[in-house]
Amino acid sequence: MMVLVGLFVGTLVGGGGLFFYQRLKTKTARALADEILSDAKREAETIRIDADLKAKEEMIRRREGLEREAEEGRKQIRDAERRLEKREDVLDQKHEHITKKEREMDTVQRFLATQQEELSQRNAEAKSLISEQRDILQRLSGLSRDDARETLLRRLESELSHEVGGLILKHEQQLKETCQSKAREILITTIQRYASGHTADTTTSTVDIPSDDMKGRIIGREGRNIRAFEKATGVDVIVDDTPGVVIVSAFDNVRRETAKLALEKLILDGRIHPSRIEEVVLETQEEMERHIRQIGRAAAQEANVPGLHDKLHDLLGRLKFRTSYSQNVLQHSLEVAFLTGLLAEELGMDGALGRRCGLLHDIGKAADHEMEGGHPKIGAELTKRYGEGREVVHAALGHHDDIRIENPFTVLVAAADAVSASRPGARRETLEKYVRRLEELEAVACGFPGVDQAYAIQAGREIRVIANSEQLNDDLTAKLARDIAKAIQEQLTYPGEVKVTVLRETRTVEFAR
């Protein structure tokens, strides 16, 4: 009985303990599940927050990329607008120039119309008077108009031809016996002893760049670099669509060359910003001043003109960057120096002083944009200021015959200046225009009766005419030369002068058999 009671009690106790154990285990599992669920929620929240951050970062990166692309587009638009503004300015200037020319043409046309009307009235009056006089002459002479004209012309030609030809020959002989032959001989001898080349500069220079990306760096943000460069150098920088080059434009060749060298330095250095631009431009200007003085000293040494003031050396160097009628002024000055020296030596004068006068005769062109007056007056002031003698000052002042000539060296400088400017090749002339001028010379000469052939020689400075010996005698040949020269003066435009030489010969041929 006790055993059964004990078993019963033990069963009850064991069942209760098992019940409590199961309940405790259930509570522990629920707590663990709640904890796992809480951790999962926190992890999910963390993942969500990270995803939001990454999405925001991606959105920011895309926004920055779009802003950069938009900024680049705006920059390109600004560059295009700047180029269009420059082109618009150029077109406005051209339009204004064309409008001005049109106004001038209208004025000229109105004046010509008035003159034409007056001429028409006068021609009508003259024709009426001539008709009345012709009728009176026909009644008095009993000859028709054509018969009277032919008779009168034959008589006048017969009477005047021999007299005019004889007078021309007489005067030409007198001139040949005087100074003209000697002057020609001296000039020919001098020109034959000296010859020189010619160079000419333009108003623009090109600067090569390694790539088109460099154009953006030259322009800079909102154009600050190019504005700083143009302000420091005083030139215009043209950055257009031409690949691989940037154009530097200025009428002052010294400033243009300085700007070109400075821009090449900046491109090679790679650091392009306003402060660096000012530094490089200042450095290049100093180098250019030294280079100009070296050029002036070399020119003085080449012309064998010692003892010049350093300022005159600087002015001579600047002439290398100056052109006149497409002729380089320094090269022209050297030519005039050599020619003047040779002319002076041919005449028994001081050749060294002649070279000095010739070298400095156009020195005023180096400063005519800085001082008032023409280059002869400026040159005279500069040579006098820097210690040159009276002959040099007078040659600079009077080599264009603006004043009364009081010194023989001034005459020699003027002659050498004309020779240097008018010699073939000194000033550029197109081949087409050159050939046309020669053809016009020959056509004028061939238009006269009694001319068999005509040849333009010496680059159009002389024309040789072959006359028919059976139709013309010596007196008529002299008249023919004068008539051809007069026709050339009236009909053609040419530099310097044209010599007309008429040749007439009689050939008698026999054969010994």
Describe this structure in words.
With 513 residues, the protein is mainly alpha-helical. Among the domains are: 193-197 and 306-422, Hypothetical protein af1432; 204-302, Ribosomal Protein S8, Chain: A, domain 1 (2-Layer Sandwich), CATH 3.30.1370; 431-503, K homology (KH) domain (GMP Synthetase, Chain A, domain 3), CATH 3.30.300. It contains 15 helices and eight strands. A three-stranded antiparallel sheet has the order 1-3-2, with helices on one face. A three-stranded mixed sheet has the order 6-7-8, covered by helices on one side. A hairpin with a 4-residue loop joins β6 (451-457) and β7 (462-467). The radius of gyration is 48 Å and the shape is elongated. The model is unreliable at 197-201 (pLDDT under 50).
List the helices and strands and how they pair.
Elements (H helix, E strand, L loop, with lengths): L1 H140 L3 H32 L2 H15 L10 E5 L4 H7 L4 H10 L2 E3 L6 E5 L3 H17 L4 H29 L7 H10 L3 E2 L2 E2 H18 L4 H9 L15 H11 L4 H9 L9 H15 L8 H16 L4 E7 L4 E6 L6 H18 L7 E5 L10
Helix pairs in contact: 2-15, 3-9, 5-7, 6-7, 7-8, 9-10, 9-13, 10-12, 10-13, 11-12, 12-13
Concise summary:
The protein is mainly α. Among the domains are: 193-197 and 306-422, Hypothetical protein af1432; 204-302, K Homology domain, type 1 (Ribosomal Protein S8, Chain: A, domain 1, 2-Layer Sandwich), CATH 3.30.1370; 431-503, 2-Layer Sandwich (GMP Synthetase, Chain A, domain 3), CATH 3.30.300.
CATH superfamily label of the domain at 193-197 and 306-422: Hypothetical protein af1432
Unreliable segments of 5+ consecutive residues = 197-201
For this structure, the CATH topology of the domain at 193-197 and 306-422 is: Hypothetical protein af1432
Architecture of the domain at 193-197 and 306-422 in CATH? Orthogonal Bundle
> Helical stretch count?
15
Average pLDDT reading: 81
Counting DSSP E segments of at least 2 residues, the number of strands comes to 8
Elements, N to C (H/E): HHHEHHEEHHHEEHHHHHHEEHE
Shape: elongated
| Beta-strand share of residues | 5-15%
Largest sheet: 3 strands, antiparallel
Helix content: 55-70%
Sequence of strands across the biggest β-sheet:
1-3-2
CATH hierarchy class name of the domain at 193-197 and 306-422: Mainly Alpha
Going by helix content, strand content and strand pairing, the class is mainly alpha
Mind telling me the C-alpha Rg? 48 Å
Oligomer: single chain
